């Protein structure tokens, strides 16, 4: 899937500079998350994306 780095709902464009490849589960997990939240989550994960189930659990605990 293609994910918008800055979500379309937050004014993000469809230009290649604002797009990233990701799996469907990660795309849905990030949803309308801000760039700040996405970066904080990636830093928390050490720069790599864990499996979607673990990612969802960690992102939810990070939001609290």
What's the SSE blueprint?
Blueprint lengths: L1 E3 L14 E3 L2 H7 L4 H10 L7 H12 L1
Antiparallel strand pairs: 1-2
Textual characterization of the structure:
45% of the residues lie in helices and 9% in strands. The protein has one domain (2-63). The radius of gyration is 11 Å and the shape is globular. With 64 residues, it is mainly alpha-helical. The chain starts with a strand and ends with a helix. Strands 1-2 form a two-stranded antiparallel ribbon. It has helices at 24-30, 35-44, 52-63, and strands at residues 2-4, 19-21. The model has no long low-confidence stretch (mean pLDDT 82). The longest helix is centred in the C-terminal third of the chain and has 12 residues, at 52-63. It is built from three helices and two strands.
Care to give the gist of this entry?
This protein has 64 residues and is mainly alpha-helical. The chain has helices at residues 24-30, 35-44, 52-63; strands at 2-4, 19-21. It has one domain (2-63).
The helix fraction, in percent, is 40-55%
Poorly predicted regions are none
Q: For the largest sheet, list the strands in their spatial order.
A: 1-2
Q: Number of helix segments? A: 3
Q: Biggest sheet, in brief?
A: 2 strands, antiparallel
| Cα Rg | 11 Å
Q: Which structural class do the helices and strands define?
A: mainly alpha
How much is the average pLDDT? 82
* Basic shape: globular
| Total domain count | 1
Strand content: 5-15%
Number of strands: 2
| Cα end-to-end separation | 28 Å
Topology order in helix (H) and strand (E) letters = EEHHH
